[in-house]
Amino acid sequence: MMARNLIACSVLLSFFVIIGTVLPSFAEEIKATDQIKKNPAMMEMLKKIELSKKILAQMQEGKTIDNTKAQQMQELRNKVKASLAEEVNRMNKDYEQYNSQNAFAKFVSKKPGHVQPIYQAMFSYHQEKVSQAKSEYNKIISSGGKTKDAWDAYHKSSATNRIKLIQLNKDLSIKYGNADPAIQNTFDEKGKLPRTSE
Hints:
Elements (H helix, E strand, L loop, with lengths): L1 H21 L11 H5 L1 H55 L5 H10 L6 H27 L4 H12 L3 H14 L5 H4 L14
């Protein structure tokens, strides 16, 4: 029994010796009974216990400081984000006449009236594709995906192949009375007239 106590004390003592060599010792008065003060081993253990308490208190204080710094950083981020949003809104207002919708409307206004709805419908189709692509991009980024994967999804979602554009143009031309359905149906899916053997 005594041997076990000695082993436990020596293990604790060696642990505290290691801590004592790594961290600077402190020379403050430790409260102890006269009997403990007369025993050097017990006094050394008591010093190490006090040192451990101080280290623990410093670590907890460090966490508090870290939390305070993190809160300050988040407040700063929020202020910057609000400032940026305000600046973007101001810029959008200042350059509203140059945004894609208004610039395209100005372009279309110079075209003949009977084709303007076709141009506008094509532009709306394009805007819808871009919106879907942005949604795909944001979905991947917000779920923790890679930026490359998000951009790949963006490009895939926003792409329109030639056959789809030909079909869309055909449908819009018929819808807005700019083409005869019978004539449009003679073209193949690639927008070409069928070849004859003659």
